[in-house]
């Protein structure tokens, strides 16, 4: 049966490691269908909420390289069910990911949603595009009002994706998420402060009825 992600990942050395651990039969005789070569509504919804991704590329000398990319939630755009794109902003001007994908277009991304404890890994063919190469795409991908200087687009053609289990993902929350959760508490505190002030005005700071 198909297991697109593992078809890529199961190199001879990986197979040997799986065999050594008695796990090779799990993947060799995979019963089921996990030929995830098209995004569904589930991935679309997940990707639209993410503000971070990690992109692994490979250099011409065979060294892997991993780098963070981020932006406002939904900065990674789903162009169609096999294509993603994001704006690449000016940074330290090392251009390592950019150079790597020009030499080798195979890349792997992982998106981790710490609050929801979910992670999605995605094999892609990656390319960079000048901002004026495909104006309609650029228009769609750039987040207007985001205060950073875009230098290029990354376009990512899906090869295979897979979901991981939530194991060992420690929950973390963004400021925005915390603000939303804290808002009812803030309102409650404000209400109690008002009540407290009214009671103090009536009964004095110690709470005893005046004189
Ligand atoms: C002024 C400035 C300095 C930065 N310095 C570093 C750094 O020393 N190391 C690093 O990994 N990222 C640094 N960053 C973030 C990277 O530039 C950013 O993640 C960029 O996308 C890296 O792309 P690359 O690793 O593919 O070259 C810096 C960003 C800015 C704006």
TrEMBL record:
Region forming the signal peptide: none
Protein name per its UniProtKB record: Pyridoxamine 5-phosphate oxidase
PANTHER family per the UniProt record, alphabetical: FAD-BINDING, PUTATIVE (AFU_ORTHOLOGUE AFUA_6G07600)-RELATED
Residues annotated as domain Pyridoxamine 5'-phosphate oxidase N-terminal: 40-149
Residues in coiled coil: none
Pfam families per the UniProt record, alphabetical: PNPOx_N
């Amino acid at each position: 049966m198909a297991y697109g992600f593992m078809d890529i990942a199961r190199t001879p050395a990986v197979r040997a490691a799986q065999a050594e651990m008695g796990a090779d039969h799990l993947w060799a005789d995979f019963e089921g269908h996990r030929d995830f070569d098209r995004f569904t509504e589930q991935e679309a919804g997940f990707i639209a909420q993410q503000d971070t991704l990690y992109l692994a590329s490979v250099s011409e000398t065979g060294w892997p390289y991993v780098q963070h990319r981020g932006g406002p939630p939904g900065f990674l755009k789903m162009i169609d069910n096999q294509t993603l794109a994001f704006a690449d902003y000016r940074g330290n001007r090392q251009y390592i990911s950019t150079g790597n994908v020009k030499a080798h277009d195979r890349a792997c991304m992982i998106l981790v949603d710490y609050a929801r404890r979910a992670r999605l890994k995605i094999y892609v063919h990656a390319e960079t595009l000048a901002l004026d190469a495909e104006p309609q795409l650029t228009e769609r991908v750039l987040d207007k009002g985001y205060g950073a200087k875009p230098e290029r687009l990354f376009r990512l053609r899906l090869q295979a994706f897979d979901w991981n289990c939530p194991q060992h993902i420690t929950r973390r929350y963004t400021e925005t998420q915390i603000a939303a959760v804290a808002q009812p508490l803030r309102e409650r505190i404000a209400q109690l402060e008002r009540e407290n002030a009214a009671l103090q005005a009536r009964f004095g700071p110690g709470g005893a009825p005046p004189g």
